[in-house]
């Protein structure tokens, strides 16, 4: 039976008219993934929309893997797999000029939630597979305090065992949507999730 995998990217914001996360997810959807029922979604860079989407998709779909993908301008030729997300500190306004109530995801949870996915093993495996590439992978413990971290925490509330967040770099002469999509495919096909 195929595994249910949902992969999300984000819509435009700030200097990203076309968000590299969503462009990479779109490209990923063109690939054939053996034994994977892939669904892709674009989340607008709006806190309330992220809230509604995450709650709805976990309630309706309950996927085998939820992979959120976001862009980070701090990355150049590397991809970060996030180990945890933070509940508090969301002071940066979304594209509508809003912030979450009390600048947090949920008052009912602790300050940090961690994924139970074996992030370090995944990173080590990817670096071994991509050893002759300019592209490197690393573990990150800070997905930021904007929509990426917010969405990740929200999803971790629903399921810490099936949720992962991947930060990708802006596109450059070294990193394209195809490069990132191939990396995302490698993560999905990793046997550590199923």
TrEMBL record:
<keyword id="KW-0963">Cytoplasm</keyword>
<keyword id="KW-0645">Protease</keyword>
<dbReference type="GO" id="GO:0005829">
    <property type="term" value="C:cytosol"/>
</dbReference>
<comment type="similarity">
    <text>Belongs to the peptidase C15 family.</text>
</comment>
<keyword id="KW-0788">Thiol protease</keyword>
<protein>
    <submittedName>
        <fullName>Pyroglutamyl-peptidase 1</fullName>
    </submittedName>
</protein>
<dbReference type="Pfam" id="PF01470">
    <property type="entry name" value="Peptidase_C15"/>
</dbReference>
<dbReference type="GO" id="GO:0016920">
    <property type="term" value="F:pyroglutamyl-peptidase activity"/>
</dbReference>
<dbReference type="InterPro" id="IPR000816">
    <property type="entry name" value="Peptidase_C15"/>
</dbReference>
<dbReference type="GO" id="GO:0006508">
    <property type="term" value="P:proteolysis"/>
</dbReference>
<keyword id="KW-0378">Hydrolase</keyword>
<dbReference type="InterPro" id="IPR036440">
    <property type="entry name" value="Peptidase_C15-like_sf"/>
</dbReference>
<dbReference type="InterPro" id="IPR016125">
    <property type="entry name" value="Peptidase_C15-like"/>
</dbReference>
